[in-house]
Structure formats: structure tokens, C-alpha cells
């Protein structure tokens, strides 16, 4: 009996340990959420797949100048080969007189009943007008382009995670404030009710306090629903089940002091993935123009073949292996102005890429400056809300004391409580805005990690 109780106790405590460990795993920091989102997001995975495909393309272009070895074989069977019948005839003589020698009739096959061939060939490009080098350079640029696209996709995702994460932190803090408001107003209702029962205040004062308490309870209920919806949204972004119970690590928004010193620097443009992508696209267009020139340059290719075939017109006997080698030279001579027109097309692509760079840099500069202005404004607003919150807390404390001394009314206390609650909400929202605009600023300068 004692052994059974001991086993049950051990199983119980083991279950509690597993539950506590699973609960601990549900606590997520901001970096945990970011990493989970990067591992889950389909757009990021798609961009990484494009990058790997570009890697394979670069490897292919690097091997284009290597010799190629190919094996080819064929076999053909004819059931009834075509035949040529030759009638008999008298052989001619040197003096023009009848020779008396008769050649009999014969039948010859015009085709072979069994025809086959097998060859092992090697080809090696010697000079292609620079085409292989240009193709390799384009593949290298395409790989950089794919890498920048991965970074751009990640930065968009990380900003989304930051906004949802700090939004949830803000809602949690506001929920705490409303919980304090419920406790405060519950005490006020009790106190006012006691005063009403002793005849100090009217029924109207009790009803005012009760209405305010009901309003706060309703706001608390709505906020609880918003917290759950915010958790669902964050769960969907990081790849958890939508209804998963998630606990976030941060509960207090901490604002770094160095944010007020942010300023615009043109060097920040170099870290933006979009600028890198546009520059690579421009370089690709320039290289494609060079590739057009390469298409109209002489092209020299060497080859060698080792073969066996039937019929074999290069050997003395059937089924004999033969070898041949040589070079092939192709020189474009006249193509009705194709080269000039294709170069014009590529020149227009180069100009278009340059225009896109200029336009997008203007947009990016505007985005960076806007993010700086918004971050600075949010910091100023945060300072204002801190002052307002301190005043509201002092005012609420004063009204509570005056109400207890009978100097102020219930309405004054309720107004002070509403002001305190609103000041807290403004302060929390201001902190969340700072964190969100901070993330937006770092994304605008290409440094959001």
C-alpha cells in the first residue's frame, strides 16, 4: 500500500514538473517571436528557395567553360531492305568486237538490314566572344539580388512582429491599469454606499459611482477580448496555433535614451536591401548589353569523337572503331542590323534601371526622414504623457483624501479617477508608439534585426 502511494506521488510530481516546463516554454521574448516567425513564414521560405536556385544557377555558369562529354547511340532494323536488280549483259572488249563473255544478272541491297551507331564525343568551347564570362557575372549578380530579396522579406516580417508584439505588451499593461481601476472604484462604491446608508450622501452619488464602476468593468471585458485577438494575431505570425496560449516576456516598455539623437545620414541608404537590389539590376542590364556584343563575336569550339557504326564509310571493315577530332568556327557576318537594335533595347533597359534607382532613392530618403520625425514626435509625446500621468496620480491621491475628509464630492473623485485611467492609457500607448516607431526607423535604415 505504501509503495502504491509512493508511486502515485512520484507520478503526480512528475506531471507537475512537465506542466511547469511546458508553461515555461510558452513564455516568449521579442527575439524568440522574431526567430519563430522567420522559421515559419512562407514568404521568407519562398525567398530562400529563390536564393538557392540562384546559387545553382551560378554553379552552372561557372561550369559552362568545362569540356562536355556525351554518349550517343542508335539502331535501325529494316525487315525488307530496298534492292536493285542488275540484268545480265555481255562484257565489252577493247576492239569493239563481241567478247562472248556474259555477265550474269545480280541483285544488290541498297540499304542495310541492320544499321547502328555508337559514339563518345567531347566538346570544349575555346572562344565564345566573352559570352561565358558575362553569363557568369550575371549569375553572380542574380545571386546577390536573391540574397537582398531575402533580407527585404525578413525586414518586412520583423517589423510586423515588432508591431504586434509591442501592441500586445501595451494591451497587457492597459489591462493591469483597468484592474486597478476596478479595485479602486469597488472601494469607492462601498464607501459611498456606507455614507448613503448613514445619510451623508444621496442615492445619486451611489449610482454615479456604480455607473462608473460598470463602465470600467465593460472596458476591462473589451480589453480582455482585444488581448486575446492580439495573441491570435501574433500566434498566426510566428507559426503557433491561433488559439495557443502564449505568454510574452516583456511587461514593461523600456525606452532607450539614445533614441533622441537619431539623425539622417546618406550612408544609411547603402544598408537598404532595395537600393542594393536596384544597383544589381542596373549592373545586370549593363552586362546583358555586353552579352549582345558577345553573341556577334566569332565563336570557336573544339570537338573529338570516338565511334563505331554500320555502315562505316571511314573504316576498312564494319564494327571497327574510328576517331575524329576538329574545330568549329562560327563568324556572324550579316544579320540585317540585329546587333544594333538589340544594343538599343539593352540601352533602354539600362536607362530604365537608372530612373528606377533615382526614384526609389527619393522615396527611401523620404521614408527615413519620416521615420525620424515620427520617432522624435513620439518621444516628445511620451514626455508629455509622463507629466500628465504624474499630475493625474497626484490629483487622484488628493481627491481621495479630500473625499475622506468630506471636502470634495464623489463626482470630483470619479473625474480624477477617469483622468488617472486615461493618463495611464495615454502613457502606455505613447511607449508602444515609441517602440513601434523605433522598429520602423531601424527598418528604414536597413538595420532591423
UniProtKB/TrEMBL annotation:
One of its GO terms (cellular component) is efflux pump complex. Residues 1-24 form the signal peptide. GO terms for molecular function: efflux transmembrane transporter activity; porin activity. It comes from Saccharicrinis fermentans DSM 9555 = JCM 21142. The lineage of its organism: Bacteria, Pseudomonadati, Bacteroidota, Bacteroidia, Marinilabiliales. Coiled coil: none annotated. Its main location: membrane. Belongs to the outer membrane factor (OMF) (TC 1.B.17) family. Pfam families: OEP (PF02321). Keywords: Cell outer membrane, Membrane, Signal, Transmembrane, Transmembrane beta strand, Transport. InterPro entries: OMP_efflux (IPR003423), TolC-like (IPR051906). This is Outer membrane channel protein. It is found in: Cell outer membrane.
